[in-house]
Known about the structure:
Its EC number is 4.1.1.37. One of its GO terms (molecular function) is uroporphyrinogen decarboxylase activity. This is Uroporphyrinogen decarboxylase. The protein contains 15 helices and eleven strands. The protein is α/β, with parallel strands linked by helices and 353 residues long. Strands 1-4-5-8-9-10-11 form a seven-stranded parallel β-sheet. Strands 2-3 form a two-stranded antiparallel ribbon. It starts with 9 loop residues before the first helix and ends with a helix.
Amino acid sequence: MTFAPLQNDRFLKALNREAVDRTPVWMMRQAGRYLPEYRASREKAGSFMDLCQNAELACEVTLQPLERYPMDAAILFSDILTIPDAMGLGLYFETGEGPKFRKVVRTEADVAALPIPDAETDLGYVMKAVSTIRGALNGRVPLIGFSGSPWTLATYMVEGGSSKDFRHLKAMVYSQPELAHALLDKLAQSVTAYLNAQIRHGAQAVQIFDTWGGALSAEAYREFSLKYMQQIVDGLIRDHEGRKVPVILFTKNGGLWLETMADSGCDALGLDWTINIGEARRRVGDRVALQGNMDPAVLYASPRAIRAEVKRILDDFGDHPGHVFNLGHGITPQVDPAHAGVFIDAVQEFSQR
């Protein structure tokens, strides 16, 4: 596949800690329910998974935020639970309750029965979406591919859906660690193949979303979450189309472990809002770029307050290379799209070099 040359590479340069004219910006979950045009596309699709599995509609919603705002990157519209679904667990969504699985994974037999999905066939709809989006971008901005981390995927697979305490998986970690490792290793192999396929189909950077790694103790985080993200980083295609493919690790509530995460070989760390970005930069030095980290709830505040918080974060990071501005987690559905615009414009205005 041959794609148009990249016109705006500010995001990729920042991830590689190269000089940029201003701080690049995008938002986690930027294609989402806060946008009326997204809600219309989802209505047209019929369901969330139908939207994910239709390459043209997935492309349509990926591009929607770029039509509204001067973003520096697009992110593939998909879901982190595509891999467990392709393993045959039967993903479905109940209104107001989030994702659920028809089958759970709790025994040795359950783990043994899990196939490692073929990214090109079992997840071919994702690859079709990646190449469709990359073609439609026509070099405008880079395309980010992504996956959930093995630990985060395992929480849904073992609990059967969302959980507050992860009691089944944590019980497995402490009483049957070898079983937890077998599951996580299978997931790491699956994620590696999945992200490499996304890169081959046109993703120019990838992010691993470790949404629930922060629920672990420091020791368990290293053994059951970071170890498997490290395995993925080691197995990824790092150069493609004559250019480096940067890797971003994002562990929500992972601020305690930034130095260890930076040792993984990733290019950037995503930060949630619970850590000061200047302190994070001092701790990791020049080993990795940093992405983040405004509290998404700031977008409910006045435009003046939004601008003040953007400026504070930029000032805290300081005049150093390697900052991608983002929220500390995904934008929430009730945000006024005009407030998201204030946020993006403020980053551009205050970060001009």
